[in-house]
Amino acid sequence: MTREQEKKAEESQQGEEASLTVTERKKQAWGVDEQEEGVRRIGIKAGRRQQEGGHPFGTVTALDRWFVLKILEVASHPPINTALWDGKLIHSVEQPVATLRFHDRLAIWKLALNPELHFGDLYSAGRINVEGDLVRFLEEVYSGLKKNRQRGWFRRVLKWLGHRRIANSLSRARDNIYHHYDLSNDFYQLWLDKVAMQYTCSYFPDPEMTLEESQTAKLHHVCRKLQLKPGDTVVEAGCGWGGLARFMAKHYGVTVKAYNISREQLRFAREQAQKQGLADQVEYIEDDYRNIRGDFDVFVSVGMLEHVGTPDYTALADVIDGCLKPDGRGLIHTIGRNVAGPMNPWIERRIFPGAYPPSLREMMDIFEPHRFSIQDVENLRLHYAKTLQHWLARFDDNTDTVREMFDEEFVRAWRLYLCGSIAAFTSGELQLFQVVFNRADHNDLPWSRAYLYQQDGGVARQ
Questions:
Q1: 100: number of CA atoms within 13 Å, CB side?
Q2: Which of 71, 127, 404, 438 could bridge to 122 as Cys pair (CB 3.0-4.6 Å)?
C-alpha cells in the first residue's frame, strides 16, 4: 500500500469513528463485540455480564463469616478489616491498611472460588469495596499469598481453569491489541507523558524527576545501550504511539521502520512524524512483527514481548536473525517475572488479552536458537513502580473525564489495574527487564559500561 493509499484509508477510518455515538464508543471500549466468535469471554464488558445480579441476601450467617475467614486464611490474614453488607466488622486488626467490604453473599462465593479472576470483576462492579489505600491493600495481599504456597489439588485445578491463555496468532493478535490500545488516543493522553506518549517504564536516574523528564531519560538510556550513531538503520517491533522511533531519528540521526498493528496508535504516530518533520526518517508500518523484512543495524522492541507469548518466541527469534546485520545490535525491554508463571487471569481477560510476562530463562528461547550473545541485563522494577505512581496520580486527576468517556465501572477497573500493577512491582511479583544482545562473533564491543551514563550519549543531537 502506497503512502497516499494509507492516507485515504486513515481518513476513511477517521470519518467512521467520528460518526460513532457515545454508546457505540463505550461498546468499543468495553471489548470485542459479544457476537465475535471465540473472544466473547474477554474484555471488561464480559466481566460485567458475569457479575450482574448481585444483591444482599438477608441476614449475615455463620457460613458467610466462615467463607470470608477462609479467604483471609489463603492470603495469610493480611492486616485488613473485613465487613459484610450489614455494616458489621467480622474481622479486625489494630492497625488496618484498609477495610474490605462485601455487598452481597454471591460476591463472597465467587471470591472464594477463584479470587484471582473474580476479585477484579467484583471490585469493578462495586460488589466489593476497598476502603483505604488500595495499593497498600494489594501489596499486603501479594505478600500474604507468597507466604501461603500450600495448594491442594482442587485449588490447582481452579487456578488452571482461571489461567487458560488467550492465543496471539496472526489473526488473533490484532483483536488482542484492539482491546487495550485502541480504546482512544484521547484517553491515554489524559495520563501518559506529554513528550512522547510512552506507555512503558520510565527511567529515574534522579527519583525526583517528573514523568516527562524520566521518559526522556528512558529514551536516551535505550539509545545509548544500542550505541546508535547517525546513519544507522533501525527496525522497531511494536512501536506504540511512535515516540521512540521519532526520538531516535531526531536525536541520534538514524532511520527507522516501526511496526504496529494498532491503527489508533499508528494514526497518531504518523501525524506527529509529519508535524516534527521526521516523515522522511521514520516509516510506520501497519503489520505484525512476524512480517518484518529487510536488513538492519539495530533491532529494538520496547513493551511488545509481553504480547508475544512463549509459543511464538522461536518465530520472533527467526525474525531477529533474518533482519539483523552481522554487526547488528538488539534490545528487548519487557515486563517479566523471576519465576515462570501465568499472568493474573483478570488482567489477561479484562485488560491485556494475550499478555504473558516471561522469566529470563524463558526469554533465552529467543536468543539461544541463533546463538545471540547477551551483553547486558538490567532490571528496572522499582522504576516501573514509580512510573505507575505518576500515571495513577494523573488518572485520578482526570477520573471525571474518563467517567464521561466510558462509565464508572471502567474507572474502577482501570484504577484497580494501575494500583495492582504498582503493588505487583513493589512486591516483586513483576520485574522489568532490558536485555541487550548481538551476534556471537561480533567483537566491536565497549570495554566498560561507562558509555551508558554519559549525559549526551556522545552522539545525541540536541
A1: 26
A2: 127
Strand order in the sheet with 128-132: 89-91, 81-83, 98-102, 128-132
Contacts of residue 152, Cβ cutoff 8 Å, sequence gap at least 6: none
**Distance (Å, rounded) from C-alpha 375 to C-alpha 368?**
13
Q: Kindly state whether residue 298 falls inside one of the protein's structural domains.
A: yes
The pLDDT value given to residue 144: 84
Query: What's residue 45's pLDDT?
Result: 53
pLDDT reading at 432 higher than 50: yes
Residue 131 belongs to a domain with what CATH number? 3.30.1050
Are residues 222 and 318 located together in one domain of the fold?
yes
Contact 254, 231 (CB under 8 A): yes
- Of the residues 111, 139, 162, which one is the last residue of a structural domain? 162
Q: Which helix (H) or strand (E) holds 129?
A: strand 128-132
What's this model's pTM, rounded to 2 decimal places? 0.84
* CA 152/CA 366 separation, integer angstroms: 34
Residue type, 431: Q
Check residue 30 and give its pLDDT. Answer: 42
Give the model's confidence band at 5: pLDDT under 50 very low, under 70 low, under 90 confident, else very high.
low
Q: How far apart are CA 86 and CA 330, in angstroms?
A: 58
* Number of Cβ within a 10 Å radius of residue 194: 10
Q: Quick one: 143 and 248 in the same domain?
A: no
- Side chain identity at 127, as an amino acid letter? R
395 and 422 in contact (C-beta within 8 Å)?
A: no
Final residue in a domain of this structure, among 162, 187, 210: 162
One-letter amino acid of 404: E
Distance (Å, whole) CA 309 – CA 289: 13
Q: How many domains does the structure of the chain reveal?
A: 2
Q: Are 90 and 188 part of one and the same domain?
A: no
Give the closest residue to 415 by CA, choosing from 429, 397, 431. Answer: 397
Assigned domain for 38 exists: no
210-217 LR contacts (CB < 8 Å, sep 24+): 210/390, 211/387, 211/390, 211/391, 211/394, 214/383, 214/386, 214/387, 214/390, 215/243
d(CA 436, CA 372) in angstroms, rounded, equals 10
Does residue 25 belong to any structural domain of this protein?
no
Which range marks the domain in which residue 126 is found?
Answer: 62-162
